[in-house]
Specification:
With 179 residues, the chain is of the alpha+beta class. It contains 3 helices and 13 strands. The longest helix has 22 residues.
Length: 179
């Protein structure tokens, strides 16, 4: 039995959920989300909570059960509150500037790297080395963070690069320190 799948999903005020033709539509104050649901899973949409039920007791159905519950819960949370991820630039002279819907990264290359934000994602530059990204679609926000980190991934020797706030990097010993 799926421990995650058993949990009911609370429905906040102002969030509407519809399920038809295998798709879940969630509409809330932050935005509108649509997701194709995994097969073999049923949704029971109540007034103040959603229950995810498996069709049968096979192994494949049980694996889809927890996935379906997590997808719906993330959609409900995104449509009601939204998600936030904070990135930090570590390195001498590393900085970021917001130019409308474009971020300009100065991270050690000869020219600044321009990154256009996808629709639905907003960025706020708190300091010159900290970015707060907000969005209502958790999958799109995570993909955007991964692409931004790919501009200059954190390096294992000096720790320079773009990393998540609070991320602990495993540092390697350099050539001289290994003796």
């Amino acid at each position: 039995m799926s421990r995650i799948g058993k949990k009911p999903i609370p429905l906040p005020q102002g969030v509407k959920v519809e399920w038809k033709d295998g798709k879940v539509l969630v509409n809330g104050p932050q935005g509108k989300l649509e997701q194709l649901m995994p097969p073999r899973v049923l949704l029971e949409i109540g007034k103040d909570e959603i229950l995810v039920k498996p069709e049968d007791d096979s192994r494949l159905t049980r694996s889809y059960w927890g996935l379906a519950r997590t997808l719906v819960a993330n959609m409900v949370t995104g449509a009601s509150q939204g998600f936030t991820r904070v990135l930090e630039l570590v390195g001498t002279g590393y900085k970021v500037e917001a130019r409308g819907q474009t971020l300009a990264f100065s991270v050690g290359y000869s020219k600044p790297v321009e990154f256009p934000l996808p629709p639905g994602i907003s960025a706020q530059v708190e300091k010159a080395n900290r970015i707060e990204l907000k969005g209502f679609d958790k999958e799109q926000l995570g993909q955007t963070v991964a692409v931004i980190r790919g501009i200059r991934p954190p390096d294992a020797y000096k720790g320079k690069g773009i990393k998540n706030l609070g991320e602990v990097l495993r540092r390697k010993v350099g050539k001289a320190g290994g003796r």
